[in-house]
Amino acid sequence: MGILGLLKTGENLICCDDVSPETYEVFNNIAPNYGIHSTFLDVTDTEKLHSCIENNTKLIWVENPSNTTLKITDICEVAQVAKEKQVLLGVDNTFLTPYLQRPLELGADVVMQSATKYINGHSDIIMGCLCTNKSDVNKELVLMQVGAGLNPSPLDCYQTLRGIKTLNLRMDQHLKNSVILANYLGQHSAVEKVIHPGLKSHPQHNIFKIQASGHSGIISFYLKGGSEESEQFLKALKVFTVTEVSGGGESTAQIPFLMSHKHWKKGRKKQLNITENLVKLSVGLETICDLILDIESALDSLKPNSKCR
Question: Which of 49, 93, 96, 152 has its CA 20 to 30 A from that of 113?
Answer without folding.
Answer: 49
